[in-house]
Amino acid sequence: xxxxxxxxxxxxxxxxxxxxxxxxxxxxxxxxxxxxxxxxxxxxxxxxxxxxxxxxxxxxxxxxxxxxxxxxxxxxxxxxxxxxxxxxxxxxxxxxxxxxxxxxxxxxxxxxxxxxxxxxxxxxxxxxxxxxxxxxxxxxxxxxxxxxxxxxxxxxxxxxxxxxxxxxxxxxxxxxxxxxxxxxxxxxxxxxxxxxxxxxxxxxxxxxxxxxxxxxxxxxxxxxxxxxxxxxxxxxxxxx
Length: 240
Known about the structure:
Layout: H1 2-22, H2 24-27, H3 40-50, E1 58-63, H4 69-81, E2 85-90, E3 96-98, E4 104-106, E5 109-110, E6 121-124, H5 141-152, E7 156-160, H6 164-170, E8 197-200, E9 203-206, H7 212-223, H8 226-235
Parallel strand pairs: 1-2, 1-6, 2-5, 6-7, 7-9
Antiparallel strand pairs: 3-4, 8-9
Helix pairs in contact: 4-7, 5-6, 7-8
């Protein structure tokens, strides 16, 4: 009993010290939450160390059941390190979204709740939902409309791995250089197979899970600036 009480006092002291340093959100693992700024005080210090405040830029990352975890978490993490407000939106009303490898992510919100919002960037991870034969994303009229409107308005559209095939279905790859995973070549026949990341105007595409970090840093460079992208890259010991 005495040891249990001693342990509880130690844990309370640890939480208190963490709260003092980074804010309550960081103490309970909520430093990176929704774009509503619930943990803004805790995130500010972490973002400052990582690279900056992001210039008020915003991004929307759409998560569908079976998404490729590395292709979502890498850009989300890197953008948030750079101070970009990233909103993760579940394709369905269920905010707990399980990836293809069994890793579940708690989304900030559902897609319907943010369709009226405007974002500086839209990010589409790959994985089975983006695969043409599965068709989860390409058959969702909301996603198709969102991508077309984002492209037409000049906002940044980005996709990785199989997800450029979703962009092809939406018609936003026309006339633009792009890349994608080799498995969707039949749907994206003009892909640049030699480049890990391809940027053309307001379009950024990438090849797969192994290029997730490059993809995320390219998004940071486009939304914030190269200096911030370089600082974030250095902070994670990126050797690419």
